């Protein structure tokens, strides 16, 4: 596990310990198996994006909030060289936390989605936030609440009510997009 993975593992333990929760309580709140959480905390396993979203939601955090806490970044200025990145071990997508602060309602995330890959995120990951996806390069397909949206470079989609969302790059070329999140 790399340095980011070690910081995520430590942060998850810290969030759990701060609340006095057992592994079983986190598992119940997140829908992630107790054994999986234990392996992540012991740095024996790298979590996928879906697992991190579920764990963050259990702690009433966004994925960005969890990763920001893991990285310990607290400056208002977010220099490109200091922006934390994380690669999903399952899909290979690369996520860069462009801007996020606990005292600011807006977060910016940049994502590079490899060709032919997708990630499905549960409705809980969209609770108490509003978001817009803005495609920078390539094409992206978003399945949301029974609707299918195909976005090309320059297109943006504001998400509706919280529901399960699948974000997919159904093409043979990479896709880059920006996510703007606002806490509600």
Short summary:
Helices cover 28% and strands 32% of the residues. With 184 residues, it is α+β, with helices and mostly antiparallel strands. Strand 2 and strand 3 form a beta hairpin.
Number of helices: 5
> What is the structural class?
alpha+beta
Based on CA atoms alone, the radius of gyration comes out at 16 Å
The general outline is globular
Order of helices and strands: HHHHHEEEEEEEEEE
**Residue runs with pLDDT of under 50 for 5 or more positions:** none
Overall pLDDT score? 89
- Largest sheet, order of strands side by side? 1-2-3-10-5-8
Strand content: 25-35%
Distance between the termini: 34 Å
Description:
This protein has 184 residues and is of the alpha+beta class. Helices cover 28% and strands 32% of the residues. The protein is built from 5 helices and 10 strands. It has helices at residues 3-19, 23-30, 34-41, 49-58, 63-71; strands at residues 85-87, 94-99, 106-113, 118-121, 129-137, 139-144, 147-152, 156-158, 165-168, 175-183. The strands form 2 sheets. The chain has a 6-stranded antiparallel sheet, with helices on one face. A 4-stranded antiparallel sheet has the order 4-9-6-7. β6 (139-144) and β7 (147-152) form a beta hairpin. α2 crosses α3. The mean pLDDT is 89.
Topology:
Elements: H1 3-19, H2 23-30, H3 34-41, H4 49-58, H5 63-71, E1 85-87, E2 94-99, E3 106-113, E4 118-121, E5 129-137, E6 139-144, E7 147-152, E8 156-158, E9 165-168, E10 175-183
Antiparallel strand pairs: 1-2, 2-3, 3-10, 4-9, 5-8, 5-10, 6-7, 6-9
Helix pairs in contact: 1-5, 2-3, 2-4
């Amino acid at each position: 596990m790399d340095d980011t993975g070690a910081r995520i593992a430590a942060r998850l333990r810290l969030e759990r310990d701060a609340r006095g929760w057992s592994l079983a309580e986190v598992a119940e709140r997140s829908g992630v198996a107790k054994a999986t959480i234990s392996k992540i905390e012991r740095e024996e396993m790298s979590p996928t994006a879906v697992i991190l979203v579920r764990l963050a939601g259990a702690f009433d955090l966004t994925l960005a909030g969890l990763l920001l806490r893991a990285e310990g970044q607290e400056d208002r200025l977010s220099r490109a060289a200091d922006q934390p990145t994380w690669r999903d071990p399952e899909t290979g997508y690369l996520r860069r936390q462009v801007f996020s602060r606990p005292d600011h309602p807006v977060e910016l995330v940049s994502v590079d989605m490899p060709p032919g890959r997708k990630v499905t995120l549960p409705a809980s990951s969209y609770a108490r936030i509003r978001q817009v996806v803005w495609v920078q390069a390539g094409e992206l397909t978003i399945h949301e609440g029974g609707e299918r949206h195909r976005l090309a470079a320059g297109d943006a989609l504001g998400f509706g009510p919280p529901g399960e969302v699948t974000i997919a790059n159904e093409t043979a070329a990479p896709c880059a997009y920006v996510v703007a999140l606002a806490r509600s």
